[in-house]
Amino acid sequence: MDAFYASVEQRDNPELRGKPVAVGGSAARGVVAAASYEARVFGVHSAMASVTAKRKCPDLIFVKPRFEVYRAVSQQIREIFADYTPLIEPLSLDEAYLDVTENLKGMEIATEIAAEIRARIFAATGLTASAGISYNKFLAKMASDQRKPNGQFVITPRNGPAFVEALPVKKFHGVGPATAERMKKHGIETGLDLKMKPLAYLQQHFGKSGAYFHGIARGIDERRVRSDRIRKSVGAEDTFSEDISDLALAEAELRPLAEKVWRYCEAHDIAGKTVTVKIKYADFTQATRARTVASTFARIEEVLDVADQLLATVHPFRRPVRLLGVTLSSLTTSGADADAGAEPQLDLGL
C-alpha cells in the first residue's frame, strides 16, 4: 500500500488531502509512524523523530494513529488477495507476498493479476497500491518500490541479475543502515561489489547472513511464500509526554505495554519465552535488555516481573527516559513444546 496509514487518514478527512501529514508522534514528541507523499517531499519519513520531521516541514500536520481502522482496511485487502491465491504471506498491515504461480483465477500473466488486484483494492477502499512482480521474494520486494505510488514493475529472470548488480546495497531489502555501513568498509557499495565477494568471505564477515547475501547478489532467493509463517516477535512501545527519571513511574508505564503484547498473544494463540525491554533516553540514545526463560510464559504477571527486573538493571537511568518498549519473542503456538519452533527476535512493534 502507498503511505498506508497517512493515505487512510487523508481518505477519511478531506481537509488533510494534498497536505503534508504525519501519523504518530506530535510536534514536540514521539516518532513518525507514516508520512504522506506530500510530507516525503520535505524528507519526512517513518521512524523519524517528530521534532526533526517538524523542522524539515514546518506545515506538517500530526494525526493520531487509528490502528483499528488500519486493521479493518487491511482485512478488506486480504480478502481480495484470497480470491487469487491461498499462498499469502503478510509482512505487516500494508504489505504481503503472494505466490500466483498457480492461482485460483487461472490467469497466466502475473502483471495482469497485479493490475486487477490493484484496481479492486482501489474500488473497495479508495486507496492506491503498488506491486512488484518477479520470480522470487527479494526481487519482487525490490520491484515494488520502483513505481510508487500507484504503479507496478516487473523484474524478469533475464534481467534480474543485472538489476541487482546496479542497485546500491543500502537499498537492498534486509540490509539496514548498520549492515550497509559495514559492507562499505569492506568495499561493498553495489550489488556488483557484493557479487564479487566469495561465499566464504561473506560468511566470515557477515555470519549466517553471508549465504543469503551471496545468493541475492546473483538474483537468487529460494525462500518460499509461507502462508503459515509464524511471527518472530510481538512488541509495543510508547513515547511519553514528559521524560521519566523515577523507576516506579517507569515500571508503571511498562504494564500497559506488556498487557497489550499479552492480549495479542492470547488472541492469536501464541506464547513466548524471551522478554526484551527497550529504553530510549532523552538524547535519543537507547539500550535494550533481554532475558530468556526455560519455558514459555504462562501468565502476564511473569512477563511483567521479568520486564521490571530488566528495567531495574539500567537504573539509575543515565538520562531521563522518553520511550519504553516491551517485546515478547521466541514464539511458538501456545500448545506447542516450548523448544519447538523457537524463533530469533525481530522487533515488529504492534
Automatic annotation (TrEMBL):
Mg(2+) binds at residue 94. Its EC number is 2.7.7.7. Keywords: Cytoplasm, DNA damage, DNA repair, DNA replication, DNA-binding, DNA-directed DNA polymerase, Magnesium, Metal-binding, Mutator protein, Nucleotidyltransferase, Transferase. Coiled coil: none annotated. It is an enzyme of class 2 (transferase). The active site is at residue 95. GO terms for biological process: DNA repair; DNA-templated DNA replication; error-prone translesion synthesis; SOS response. Poorly processive, error-prone DNA polymerase involved in untargeted mutagenesis. Copies undamaged DNA at stalled replication forks, which arise in vivo from mismatched or misaligned primer ends. These misaligned primers can be extended by PolIV. Exhibits no 3'-5' exonuclease (proofreading) activity. May be involved in translesional synthesis, in conjunction with the beta clamp from PolIII. This is DNA polymerase IV. It comes from Rhizobium quercicola. The lineage of its organism: Bacteria, Pseudomonadati, Pseudomonadota, Alphaproteobacteria, Hyphomicrobiales.
